[in-house]
Amino acid sequence: MVQILMGIAALLGGLAVAGGAFASHALKDKLSDRALEIFETGTRYQMYHALALLLVVVLLTQSQAAQTWLNSAGIAFIVGTIIFSGSLYALSLSGIKWLGAITPIGGAAYLIGWGCLAIAAFSFKS
After folding, report:
1. pLDDT of residue 25
2. Burial of 101 (0-12, 13-18, 19+ CB in 10 A)
3. Long-range pairs for 81-84 at CB < 8 Å and ≥24 separation?
4. What is the mean pLDDT of the segment spanning 43-52?
5. Is 61 helix (H, G, I), strand (E, B) or coil?
6. How far apart are CA 62 and CA 125, in angstroms?
7. 103 with 87: CB under 8 angstroms?
8. What burial letters (b/e) apply to 81-92, b meaning 16+ CB within 10 Å?
9. What is the secondary structure of 82-117 as a DSSP string?
10. Backbone region of residue 31 per phi and psi (left: phi > 0; alpha: psi in -120 to 50; beta: other values)
11. pLDDT per residue over 4-25, tens digit each?
12. What mean pLDDT is predicted for residues 48-58?
């Protein structure tokens, strides 16, 4: 699982950088300021959670006891990124307003991931 999560973290981080560059250069003159801001919020949260996923990977190598909670956190961060950032990208590029209603589901997945990470902290043996 560590290799899979690490690979996904690297992919999400790289795509966040590419998405930010794409927004800054290719979309700058094509989207409204608000749509560009929405797109950039997606890339920012994607990068935050790619880094959080890397933290999960590091922690997975440190503890056998917390593996279930850490794996759950990793999966929640991935799902959150797909739904939260994905819906923001789709909203900003398409202008379809109802896509914004999906975004909080991704935010909830992020919160679940952070909650799982907090629970995992209590499973560590020092």
Report:
1. 86
2. exposed
3. 81/12, 81/45, 81/46, 81/49, 81/50, 81/106, 82/106, 83/109, 84/42, 84/45, 84/109, 84/110
4. 97
5. coil
6. 10
7. yes
8. bebbbbbbbbbb
9. IIIIHHHHHHHHH--GGGGGTHHHHHHHHHHHHHHH
10. beta
11. 999 999 999 999 999 999 888 8
12. 97
Rounded CA gap, 17 and 15, in Å? Answer: 5
In whole angstroms, give the CA distance from residue 14 to residue 33.
24
Cα–Cα distance for residue pair 18/102, rounded to 1 Å: 23
Q: How far apart are the first and last CA of the chain?
A: 23
CA 29 from centroid of its chain's CA atoms: 26
Mean pLDDT of 47-59: 96
Amino acid at 124: F
Cα–Cα distance for residue pair 71/89, rounded to 1 Å: 26
In this prediction the pTM is: 0.92
pLDDT at 48: 97
